[in-house]
Amino acid sequence: LTYVRKEKQFVALIETSTLQGDDMSEEETRTEQLSLHICPVVESKDQEGSSCSESESQSDIGTKKKSYKCDICGRCYTQQCKLKKHYRTHTGEGLFSCQTCGKSFCRINDLNVHKKIHTDQRPFSCKSCGKNFSRISNLNIHNRIHTGERPFSCEFCGKRFTRNKNLNDHKRIHTGERQFSCKSCGKSFSRFSKLNVHKRIHTGERPFSCESCGKSFRGISHLNIHKRIHTGEKSFSCESCGKSFSRNRDLNVHRRIHTGERPFSCKACGKRFSRVGNLYRHMKTHTGQGPL
């Protein structure tokens, strides 16, 4: 590992280790050049992958822990090897892919855990709604739906989330970061997985079918949401009035009834709405024509 000083950045040429998975026919080696910000930091969270805090003075370098910072999204890691694995989520290269649904992972261990979804191995059950999970960490995150706990908040708008990953995805709304582009139509996405699902619009591929009615979907998440029509499952409950919903986003929209939040405003007259669909309908009163 060689570092070259350039202003306040260090550029590292990283020879990746040989990747070998069960579904790979031959060994694959590649060299990446990453721009790594190495800064002494005071960690604000115990977990890896949190945002870096402000750099301390140069005199404190010897006493502070060094952090490897991703130059694309700003996430920090205490070990360079963990940053290297994280970087693949941006490039889409060197990932371990599920042969059943195509979802990709940085680590073979995460892929093996994911495969349990398809084999229906879900040993961890929620005591509140009975939903099952393949690992206990996912169950703990799911429990926040019932408790209403949202420990991760956006510093730009204050919106809160149950998972740090969802917060990081949300931040791209403010930064406008969309580094994954479709070669067919040019549409850009903030996540590589969303680009893969989008590509099926052009290919017509709908690999996920409902066993109850045969309807097919481009993404497995779309299928899982659809299944609730048949099961009647409504696992997302409003803590204010108890009303239940089959989708978390429907619950989030419903909560605005209690909070009075109206995030969508008309540029013509300033009137505000709790739903974007209501705003679109209102705009026709000014133009006689809805948005494109």
TrEMBL record:
GO molecular function, one term: zinc ion binding
Entry's Gene Ontology BP terms: regulation of transcription by RNA polymerase II
Domain of life of the source: Eukaryota
Any one Pfam family match given in the protein's UniProt record, by short name: zf-C2H2
Keywords (A to Z) from UniProt: DNA-binding, Metal-binding, Nucleus, Repeat, Transcription, Transcription regulation, Zinc, Zinc-finger
GO CC entries: nucleus
Annotated localization: Nucleus
Domain C2H2-type positions: 68-95, 96-123, 124-151, 152-179, 180-207, 208-235, 236-263, 264-291
Residue spans crossing the bilayer: none
Record-linked SUPFAM superfamilies: beta-beta-alpha zinc fingers (SSF57667)
PROSITE patterns for the chain: ZINC_FINGER_C2H2_1, ZINC_FINGER_C2H2_2
Recorded family membership: Belongs to the krueppel C2H2-type zinc-finger protein family.
Cited PANTHER family: ZINC FINGER PROTEIN (PTHR24404), ZINC FINGER PROTEIN 613 (PTHR24404:SF41)
Role: May be involved in transcriptional regulation.
Protein known as: C2H2-type domain-containing protein
Organism of provenance: Poecilia formosa (Amazon molly)
